[in-house]
Amino acid sequence: MCQPQKSNGILTVCVSGAAGQIAYSLLPLIARGDVFGRDQPIELHLLDIKPALDALHGVVMELHDCAFPLVRNIVETDDPMVAFQHADVTILGGSFPRRPGMERRDLIAKNVNIFKAQGQALDRVASKNVKVVVVGNPSNTNALVLSHYAPSIPKQNITALTRLDQNRAVGQIAMRTGVNADQVEGVAIWGNHSATQYPDVTHATVNGEPVMPKLGGRQAVAEEFIPCIQKRGAAILKARGLSSAMSAASAIGDHLKSWILGDSKIVSMAVASDGSYDVKPGVYFSFPVRCSAGGDYEIVQGIEMDEFSRKYVSATTEELFAERQEALELCAV
Ligand SMILES: NC(=O)c1ccc[n+]([C@@H]2O[C@H](COP(=O)([O-])OP(=O)(O)OC[C@H]3O[C@@H](n4cnc5c(N)ncnc54)[C@H](O)[C@@H]3O)[C@@H](O)[C@H]2O)c1
Ligand SMILES: O=C(O)C[C@H](O)C(=O)O
């Protein structure tokens, strides 16, 4: 069950980047009750930057036109202090996009400023029990910066989205083996939401049978399946001319539903590393987690990791610590 901070039982859900394309697919899912439950009334706090406020107002007009019974109030603003006020759940999609010629460091620099300001605002006005999912890229490192500037919010309440990568892996397995997606189990995403992520199928099954041979064995998985998932975002961008939005929104809904309402299945989320699987504390790293109702989760322990998997986990860990170093240097400026 959700535990709204407000005594009237209304859950305050903040969406940043609310005039953007992910929000356009996500807001109806939330407003209809598909994420937090069909009996959970909500107040929407929609945040975007000043130049996008007219577009945001158009989105709000459409939300009114949908006449969703669960939506009790809508706030539209360009001020994070207003948007995060009493927020129970915050979805952070607003970020600076990569432009041609930008180096990764430039992208991190632009986003450090955004997530610094948002972290400080969250720290001051959000519920101390707020649940945050960072979506804007580079999402794991943006989550780290946010957490750095929001010391009063427990680190475990801040997460970044890798459920899209998990869903992509499940979708590919289902397609390649000719089954429905719900017949696939045990896929895990490790590390960064980037091309170094490790979509791990070493323990995955289809109808209870190991997936690896069905995908053609380790070499085929290494040469075809893993790169397909790692580069799926770029492939969609190339095909659509826009980055993924419907699938991202659907994955955000899945992430929050598992986290807030609990899930009998193991799912992947980027969470604060705690030394599990030799990933030192200090980064937001995607692990397989088990979510219990009410917003608690734990990193699943004891998953056997062979040499094949260790190599990938080590590469994505290295990338995240390099991003951390760059971000913290920029924070110190
Ligand atoms: N983690 C994932 O799995 C995943 C998947 C897909 C997309 N993404 C990322 O999610 C982000 C949003 O994607 P989109 O397709 O909705 O982008 P979009 O460009 O359509 O929308 C982004 C919105 O954010 C707003 N914005 C920019 N700076 C802001 C700020 N400081 N505060 C509030 N709002 C701000 C923009 O005005 C815009 O309306 C991008 O960074 C994208 O790369 C992540
Ligand atoms: O927006 C992007 O760069 C791609 C996005 O993160 C995705 O995985 O689709």
TrEMBL record:
Keywords noted in UniProt: NAD, Oxidoreductase, Tricarboxylic acid cycle
Keyword Oxidoreductase attributed: yes
Active-site positions on this chain: 193 (proton acceptor)
Domain Lactate/malate dehydrogenase C-terminal: 162-329
Catalytic reaction equation(s): (S)-malate + NAD(+) = oxaloacetate + NADH + H(+)
Annotated EC: 1.1.1.37
InterPro entries, per the entry: L-lactate/malate_DH, Lactate/malate_DH_C, Lactate/malate_DH_N, Lactate_DH/Glyco_Ohase_4_C, Malate_DH_AS, Malate_DH_type2, NAD(P)-bd_dom_sf
Entry binding sites for substrate: 98, 104, 137, 168
GO function term, MF aspect, one: L-malate dehydrogenase (NAD+) activity
GO biological process assignments: malate metabolic process; tricarboxylic acid cycle
Lactate/malate dehydrogenase N-terminal domain mapped to chain residues: 13-158
Similarity remark: Belongs to the LDH/MDH superfamily. MDH type 2 family.
Stated name of the protein: Malate dehydrogenase
